[in-house]
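A student in our group prepared the protein record below, which I am reviewing. Thanks in advance; the entry in question is below.
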Amino acid sequence: IDAAAASNFTTTGGALTLAATAANVDIDAGTAVTIDATQDSNFTVTGTGQTLTLEATGGGANQVIVNSAGTGTNAVDINATAGGVDIDAAGAVTIDAAAASNFTTTGGALTLAATAANVDIDAGTAVTIDATQDSNFTVTGTGQTLTLEATGGGANQVIVNSAGTGTNAVDINATAGGVDIDAAGAVTIDAAAASNFTTTGGA
């Protein structure tokens, strides 16, 4: 079917089927291709080990845009039912949300890693990190510093608490150096049981 002007192929009843059972269907357009529907629709590849690619190859300011006007919590649903989800970017990856959000794994570890740069976590209010097993926050680089600080002034506090019942419930240990405690005001150490402050060498 050849035409020198705008054309259409329409059915007023029943489905319109475009099928190539033993070959490809190739749709090319000199400008845009638009496919619209008013009901649930799908674009599916059913062959084992085959790939469905949605790609913008022109370069420049090209975009691949996935939009949904749905109002549900799954308005955009990306679901890999038997495998993983791999997102790669030559530049930055930005995920923004206007409501409370979570990133959860029901099995295995959740890793947040920046192998050649920093990991920066900012919050407009509080940051909470909770775990049910032994945990650590460690700086492994030689000559580097780990700082736990409250900089807001006023009645700010840095609080280290332990509900442990052992003699080392709070353990401050400098394995190869000293411990330096400075205060602009008073230093108070209180204990509810017999205590000692001992040096095994020096005065």
